[in-house]
Amino acid sequence: xxxxxxxxxxxxPGVEAVSISTGMPFGSTMTPRLLFSTTDKPIxxxxxxxxxxxxxxxxxxxxxxxxxxxxxxxxxxxxxASAPAAVVLNELLALKIFGTTKVIxxxxxxxxxxxxxxxxxxxxxxxxVVGVAENTDTSNFPGAGQRGxxxxxxxxxxxxxxxxxxxxxxxxxxxxxxxxxxIREAAPDLGVESIASGHTTxxxxxxxxxxxxxxxxxxxxxxxxxxxxxxYGVQSQIVAxxxxxxxxxxxxxxxxxxxxxxxxxxxxxxVLQGLAIGLFIGIAGRAIVxxxxxxPVEVIDPWMLLLVPVPLLLxxxxxxxxxxxxxxxxxxxxTLRHL
Length: 339
Fold this sequence. Notes:
10 helices, 9 strands, six-stranded mixed beta barrel, single chain, 17% strand, two-stranded antiparallel sheet, alpha+beta
């Protein structure tokens, strides 16, 4: 059936390459991890046994996904069920096993569950390295930069009934329709979980994070607006209560610029104090996150220290400027008349 699906999808207009695999380099795979060792060391059941993420694929997988082969060849039609076991390692795995990427023709001991899940009997065999692929992002979140050890074996030699069909088309917008038409033609009764473009698939894991980020930014903007309104109200009230004082200052020779500076200074003092406390709490929080998470998190982020205060200071200026401007225009003759 796998070959029928590949042939049917390949016949669709605009399709350049199509392959079936047990997953994708990013996210989870449907086959278990590959246990491996050099031929002079047996594979053990120890929890410390070396392993790598495994993808069982059909020919054209590397072209369809866009992974370059840096040494040797990819997997092709000669790697069928009757052929000697073949494996393609990524550069990280080649370096981990042999200490070099010049590994074409060398052999490893590979232990793969060729049946569904972890219920099948583990079979150990000798696999020949036929190619080395470039490293890829193996995280669930594109752009995270996570590079993991990956191994690729022919689907015919590490079969799994859970499959992912991937196709590359000249026009990306036609790839989804080509996949749908090809699968319907080759296996109309086959259960398909989802069909989506590569962009949609890659964006899937971060949709929730983007939505959460948008909500957080919106709430932050609303909070900043409320803070501006509150600070404006407080400063206006303070200026109203200090009208006589300001009139006396102006009558004694204070200039409008000096009055504006005084009001702005009084308004900025609590803002700067709160900003300093907030940055301290932010740095302390990042230190706690760094101590509890495995992902690298910088305790002091220069961009945070530079960019976070800017909108707060601008908001404070906008909230304080109008009361300061109003205070600088106080008529001392009017205010002193009511003393």
